[in-house]
Write a structure and sequence with these properties.
5 helices; alpha+beta; two-stranded antiparallel ribbon; about 190 residues; Rossmann fold
């Protein structure tokens, strides 16, 4: 941001928003976008937000925001997308799904389901674009009619599946409360 000071000289400054309704002050636009969407939701509102990978693992304000999402909302699903789907080539994207909840001292998220549509999946904008049909497996696993009756497709016996959950406690115990779960076969917490 460029502005003119009281002496009439031009100065520049990083644009950082300090909003009382945000959990953390940051210049990271993606983290501010997540916070803004959460503040815009009704108490029982639901959302899905496309975010780049750094929102899932960045420290500082990112960690604060992830911890608050796990505490104050029901962050129930993360869809891991291949490189270049929503952002520039080389940028990995995710869709985070959460439901807003009334204020409570009890954590609102109990488990987060991950669908890895990234590992061994490649799309291009022109030759092999992603279509609705590519997401049919995710939709079936997501179970929009009753998401509380979800069933994992990944297990120790079936490591080829793309769908599994992690408890809130498992995610909070990771460095910086990282939500970066690269592969469904990654059993290390």
């Amino acid at each position: 941001m460029t502005f003119t000071n009281s002496e009439g000289e031009q100065e520049t400054d990083d644009l950082t928003y300090n909003r009382q309704d945000f959990w953390a002050t940051t210049s990271n636009k993606q983290l501010n976008f997540v916070q803004h969407i959460r503040t815009m939701l009704k108490t029982t509102g639901r959302t899905a937000i496309v975010v780049p990978d750094n929102v899932l693992f960045e420290g500082g304000a990112g960690e604060t925001i992830r911890r608050k999402l796990l505490q104050n909302t029901d962050l129930h699903t993360i869809l891991r997308l291949p490189t270049g789907i929503f952002y520039a080539q080389g940028v990995k994207a995710n869709v985070i799904f959460f439901d807003n909840r009334p204020a409570s001292k009890d954590p609102q998220t109990s488990q987060v389901w991950f669908f890895d549509y990234r590992t061994n999946v490649h799309h291009t904008l022109k030759q092999k674009p992603m279509t609705y049909g590519h997401l049919e497996e995710f939709i079936a696993c997501y179970n929009p009619d009753n998401r509380h009756e979800r069933r994992a497709t990944w297990s120790e016996e079936s490591s080829e599946g793309r769908w599994r959950s992690y408890s809130r406690e498992e995610l909070l115990s990771r460095d910086k409360a990282s939500l970066d779960r690269n592969r469904p076969i990654d059993t290390a917490v």
